[in-house]
Protein backbone atom coordinates (compact mmCIF):
# COMPACT_ATOMS: atom_id res chain seq x y z
CA UNK A 1 0.00 0.00 0.00
CA UNK A 2 1.40 3.37 -1.03
CA UNK A 3 1.74 6.19 1.50
CA UNK A 4 -0.96 8.18 -0.28
CA UNK A 5 -3.48 5.32 -0.06
CA UNK A 6 -2.58 4.71 3.61
CA UNK A 7 -3.16 8.39 4.43
CA UNK A 8 -6.51 8.33 2.59
CA UNK A 9 -7.64 5.20 4.45
CA UNK A 10 -6.46 6.59 7.79
CA UNK A 11 -8.26 9.90 7.45
CA UNK A 12 -11.33 8.19 6.01
CA UNK A 13 -11.52 5.92 9.06
CA UNK A 14 -10.94 8.88 11.36
CA UNK A 15 -13.74 10.82 9.69
CA UNK A 16 -16.08 7.83 10.01
CA UNK A 17 -15.35 7.51 13.73
CA UNK A 18 -15.95 11.22 14.25
CA UNK A 19 -19.22 10.89 12.37
CA UNK A 20 -20.30 8.02 14.59
CA UNK A 21 -19.51 9.82 17.83
CA UNK A 22 -20.76 13.28 16.81
CA UNK A 23 -23.93 12.32 14.93
CA UNK A 24 -24.83 8.63 15.19
CA UNK A 25 -24.31 8.16 18.94
CA UNK A 26 -26.35 11.23 20.05
CA UNK A 27 -29.21 9.97 17.87
CA UNK A 28 -28.83 6.47 19.35
CA UNK A 29 -28.92 7.87 22.89
CA UNK A 30 -32.04 9.86 22.06
CA UNK A 31 -33.79 6.73 20.76
CA UNK A 32 -32.61 4.08 23.22
CA UNK A 33 -31.51 5.98 26.38
CA UNK A 34 -28.08 4.36 26.43
CA UNK A 35 -24.66 4.85 24.78
CA UNK A 36 -23.90 3.20 21.46
CA UNK A 37 -21.50 0.79 23.17
CA UNK A 38 -20.20 0.17 26.69
CA UNK A 39 -17.46 -2.44 26.64
CA UNK A 40 -14.56 -2.57 24.21
CA UNK A 41 -11.20 -3.81 25.49
CA UNK A 42 -8.70 -4.84 22.77
CA UNK A 43 -6.26 -6.00 25.46
CA UNK A 44 -8.47 -7.37 28.21
CA UNK A 45 -6.80 -7.88 31.59
CA UNK A 46 -7.52 -10.96 33.70
CA UNK A 47 -7.52 -11.28 37.46
CA UNK A 48 -5.22 -13.56 39.39
CA UNK A 49 -6.91 -16.80 40.54
CA UNK A 50 -6.92 -15.60 44.17
CA UNK A 51 -8.59 -12.32 43.16
CA UNK A 52 -11.20 -14.09 41.03
CA UNK A 53 -11.97 -16.47 43.89
CA UNK A 54 -12.87 -13.53 46.13
CA UNK A 55 -15.43 -12.43 43.55
CA UNK A 56 -16.78 -15.98 43.26
CA UNK A 57 -17.05 -16.38 47.04
CA UNK A 58 -18.25 -12.92 48.04
CA UNK A 59 -19.86 -11.16 45.08
CA UNK A 60 -23.25 -12.46 43.86
CA UNK A 61 -23.41 -9.73 41.19
CA UNK A 62 -20.30 -11.19 39.51
CA UNK A 63 -21.64 -14.74 39.67
CA UNK A 64 -24.82 -13.73 37.84
CA UNK A 65 -22.90 -12.30 34.87
CA UNK A 66 -22.46 -14.20 31.61
CA UNK A 67 -18.91 -15.51 30.88
CA UNK A 68 -18.27 -12.61 28.48
CA UNK A 69 -19.46 -10.01 30.97
CA UNK A 70 -17.43 -11.62 33.74
CA UNK A 71 -14.40 -11.00 31.54
CA UNK A 72 -15.41 -7.33 31.20
CA UNK A 73 -15.94 -7.05 34.94
CA UNK A 74 -12.53 -8.55 35.72
CA UNK A 75 -10.85 -6.14 33.31
CA UNK A 76 -12.51 -3.22 35.07
CA UNK A 77 -11.44 -4.52 38.50
CA UNK A 78 -7.85 -4.55 37.25
CA UNK A 79 -8.21 -1.01 35.93
CA UNK A 80 -9.77 0.21 39.16
CA UNK A 81 -6.91 -1.18 41.25
CA UNK A 82 -4.36 0.36 38.87
CA UNK A 83 -5.98 3.81 38.89
CA UNK A 84 -7.02 4.34 42.51
CA UNK A 85 -4.78 4.13 45.55
CA UNK A 86 -6.04 2.38 48.67
CA UNK A 87 -4.57 3.90 51.83
CA UNK A 88 -4.83 2.13 55.18
CA UNK A 89 -5.05 4.17 58.39
CA UNK A 90 -4.08 1.87 61.26
CA UNK A 91 -5.11 -1.05 59.06
CA UNK A 92 -3.29 -3.17 56.47
CA UNK A 93 -4.76 -3.13 52.96
CA UNK A 94 -5.58 -6.69 51.89
CA UNK A 95 -6.47 -8.26 48.58
CA UNK A 96 -10.01 -8.77 49.86
CA UNK A 97 -10.36 -5.04 50.51
CA UNK A 98 -9.17 -4.22 47.00
CA UNK A 99 -11.55 -6.63 45.32
CA UNK A 100 -14.66 -5.89 47.38
CA UNK A 101 -14.24 -2.12 47.12
CA UNK A 102 -13.50 -2.29 43.39
CA UNK A 103 -16.39 -4.70 42.83
CA UNK A 104 -18.87 -2.46 44.65
CA UNK A 105 -17.88 0.58 42.60
CA UNK A 106 -17.95 -1.39 39.33
CA UNK A 107 -21.33 -2.94 40.07
CA UNK A 108 -22.71 0.59 40.27
CA UNK A 109 -20.96 1.80 37.11
CA UNK A 110 -20.98 -1.40 35.01
CA UNK A 111 -23.48 0.07 32.55
CA UNK A 112 -21.31 3.13 31.89
CA UNK A 113 -18.57 3.45 29.31
CA UNK A 114 -16.45 6.06 31.12
CA UNK A 115 -16.30 4.46 34.53
CA UNK A 116 -12.94 5.74 35.83
CA UNK A 117 -14.10 8.97 37.44
CA UNK A 118 -11.42 11.58 38.17
CA UNK A 119 -13.22 13.24 41.08
CA UNK A 120 -11.26 10.95 43.39
CA UNK A 121 -7.87 9.27 43.20
CA UNK A 122 -7.61 7.51 46.55
CA UNK A 123 -9.69 5.55 49.03
CA UNK A 124 -8.75 5.90 52.68
CA UNK A 125 -9.71 3.04 54.97
CA UNK A 126 -10.00 3.08 58.76
CA UNK A 127 -10.63 -0.05 60.86
CA UNK A 128 -13.90 1.37 62.23
CA UNK A 129 -15.70 4.72 62.57
CA UNK A 130 -13.21 7.61 62.53
CA UNK A 131 -13.08 11.24 63.64
CA UNK A 132 -13.53 13.61 60.71
CA UNK A 133 -11.74 16.95 60.88
CA UNK A 134 -14.24 18.38 58.37
CA UNK A 135 -17.17 18.65 60.77
CA UNK A 136 -15.57 17.45 64.02
CA UNK A 137 -17.68 14.29 64.25
CA UNK A 138 -17.31 10.54 63.93
CA UNK A 139 -18.09 9.12 60.50
CA UNK A 140 -18.53 5.72 58.88
CA UNK A 141 -17.75 7.05 55.41
CA UNK A 142 -17.58 10.19 53.29
CA UNK A 143 -16.65 11.66 49.94
CA UNK A 144 -14.21 14.56 50.24
CA UNK A 145 -13.96 16.38 46.87
CA UNK A 146 -11.19 18.74 48.02
CA UNK A 147 -8.95 15.84 49.00
CA UNK A 148 -10.17 13.82 45.98
CA UNK A 149 -10.75 11.02 48.47
CA UNK A 150 -13.40 8.56 49.55
CA UNK A 151 -13.14 7.41 53.17
CA UNK A 152 -14.54 4.17 54.62
CA UNK A 153 -14.75 2.49 57.97
CA UNK A 154 -13.84 -1.07 56.93
CA UNK A 155 -16.01 -2.54 59.67
CA UNK A 156 -19.05 -0.73 58.30
CA UNK A 157 -18.16 -1.27 54.64
CA UNK A 158 -17.91 -5.01 55.22
CA UNK A 159 -21.12 -5.11 57.25
CA UNK A 160 -22.95 -3.37 54.40
CA UNK A 161 -21.55 -5.85 51.89
CA UNK A 162 -22.25 -8.99 53.90
CA UNK A 163 -25.76 -7.97 54.99
CA UNK A 164 -27.31 -7.81 51.55
CA UNK A 165 -31.02 -7.36 52.33
CA UNK A 166 -31.24 -4.44 54.78
CA UNK A 167 -30.83 -1.71 52.11
CA UNK A 168 -27.86 -0.22 53.94
CA UNK A 169 -24.61 -0.47 51.99
CA UNK A 170 -21.88 2.03 52.87
CA UNK A 171 -19.84 1.35 49.72
CA UNK A 172 -22.76 1.86 47.35
CA UNK A 173 -23.88 4.92 49.29
CA UNK A 174 -20.59 6.84 49.10
CA UNK A 175 -19.79 5.79 45.54
CA UNK A 176 -23.28 6.99 44.54
CA UNK A 177 -22.39 10.47 45.81
CA UNK A 178 -19.28 10.48 43.60
CA UNK A 179 -21.22 9.27 40.57
CA UNK A 180 -23.88 11.92 41.16
CA UNK A 181 -21.33 14.75 41.28
CA UNK A 182 -19.56 13.42 38.19
CA UNK A 183 -22.68 13.14 36.06
CA UNK A 184 -23.86 16.63 36.99
CA UNK A 185 -20.62 18.06 35.51
CA UNK A 186 -19.66 15.68 32.71
CA UNK A 187 -21.00 15.53 29.15
CA UNK A 188 -19.87 12.02 28.27
CA UNK A 189 -22.65 9.77 26.85
CA UNK A 190 -23.25 7.81 30.08
CA UNK A 191 -23.41 11.01 32.11
CA UNK A 192 -25.98 12.48 29.71
CA UNK A 193 -28.18 9.40 30.07
CA UNK A 194 -27.71 9.49 33.86
CA UNK A 195 -28.63 13.18 34.10
CA UNK A 196 -31.77 12.85 31.98
CA UNK A 197 -33.06 9.88 34.00
CA UNK A 198 -31.98 11.52 37.26
CA UNK A 199 -34.35 14.40 36.48
CA UNK A 200 -37.17 11.85 36.45
CA UNK A 201 -35.94 10.11 39.60
CA UNK A 202 -35.62 13.32 41.60
CA UNK A 203 -39.29 14.18 40.94
CA UNK A 204 -40.10 11.51 43.51
CA UNK A 205 -38.25 13.65 46.04
CA UNK A 206 -39.51 17.09 44.99
CA UNK A 207 -43.06 16.40 43.76
CA UNK A 208 -45.50 16.24 46.74
CA UNK A 209 -47.80 13.67 45.10
CA UNK A 210 -45.01 11.29 44.09
CA UNK A 211 -43.25 11.81 47.41
CA UNK A 212 -46.43 10.94 49.32
CA UNK A 213 -46.60 7.64 47.43
CA UNK A 214 -43.06 6.77 48.53
CA UNK A 215 -43.64 7.62 52.16
CA UNK A 216 -46.93 5.67 52.14
CA UNK A 217 -45.16 2.38 51.48
CA UNK A 218 -42.48 3.19 54.07
CA UNK A 219 -39.94 1.31 51.92
CA UNK A 220 -37.14 3.87 51.88
CA UNK A 221 -35.57 4.83 55.19
CA UNK A 222 -36.12 8.39 56.42
CA UNK A 223 -32.55 9.43 55.66
CA UNK A 224 -33.48 9.38 51.97
CA UNK A 225 -35.49 12.57 52.48
CA UNK A 226 -32.62 14.64 53.92
CA UNK A 227 -31.75 16.11 50.50
CA UNK A 228 -31.57 15.09 46.85
CA UNK A 229 -28.04 13.70 47.21
CA UNK A 230 -29.02 11.35 50.04
CA UNK A 231 -32.23 10.50 48.23
CA UNK A 232 -30.31 9.22 45.22
CA UNK A 233 -27.79 7.27 47.30
CA UNK A 234 -30.43 5.57 49.43
CA UNK A 235 -32.46 4.68 46.34
CA UNK A 236 -29.42 3.06 44.72
CA UNK A 237 -28.77 1.04 47.88
CA UNK A 238 -32.32 -0.31 47.65
CA UNK A 239 -31.99 -0.89 43.91
CA UNK A 240 -29.10 -3.32 44.38
CA UNK A 241 -30.01 -4.89 47.73
CA UNK A 242 -33.75 -5.62 47.36
CA UNK A 243 -34.50 -5.12 43.65
CA UNK A 244 -37.56 -7.40 43.53
CA UNK A 245 -39.26 -5.53 46.38
CA UNK A 246 -38.33 -2.17 44.82
CA UNK A 247 -39.70 -3.18 41.43
CA UNK A 248 -42.91 -4.52 42.98
CA UNK A 249 -43.64 -1.44 45.12
CA UNK A 250 -42.42 1.32 42.80
CA UNK A 251 -42.09 -0.05 39.24
CA UNK A 252 -41.87 3.31 37.45
CA UNK A 253 -39.18 4.65 39.77
CA UNK A 254 -37.29 1.37 39.46
CA UNK A 255 -37.38 1.68 35.65
CA UNK A 256 -36.01 5.24 35.79
CA UNK A 257 -33.11 4.10 38.02
CA UNK A 258 -32.33 1.20 35.67
CA UNK A 259 -32.12 3.63 32.73
CA UNK A 260 -30.08 6.10 34.78
CA UNK A 261 -27.20 3.64 35.35
CA UNK A 262 -27.92 1.56 32.21
CA UNK A 263 -28.48 -1.51 34.36
CA UNK A 264 -28.95 -4.82 32.58
CA UNK A 265 -30.56 -7.79 34.33
CA UNK A 266 -28.60 -10.96 33.59
Which tags fit this structure?
266 residues; alpha/beta; Cyclin A, domain 1; 4-stranded mixed sheet; two-stranded antiparallel sheet; 6 strands; 60% helix; globular; aminopeptidase activity; MtfA_N; MtfA_fam; Zinc-dependent peptidase
Task: Walk me through what this model shows.
This is Zinc-dependent peptidase. Pfam families: Peptidase_M90. InterPro entries: MtfA_fam (IPR010384), MtfA_N (IPR042252). One of its GO terms (cellular component) is cytosol. This protein has 266 residues and is an alpha/beta fold. It folds into 2 domains: 1-32; 49-260, Glucose-regulated metallo-peptidase M90, N-terminal domain (Cyclin A, domain 1), CATH 1.10.472. Helices cover 60% and strands 9% of the residues. The strands form 2 sheets. The protein has a 4-stranded mixed β-sheet. A two-stranded antiparallel sheet has the order 3-4. Helix 4 packs across helix 5, helix 7 (170-185) packs across helix 8 (189-201) and helix 8 (189-201) runs antiparallel to helix 13 (251-260). It is globular and about 50 Å long. The mean pLDDT is 91.
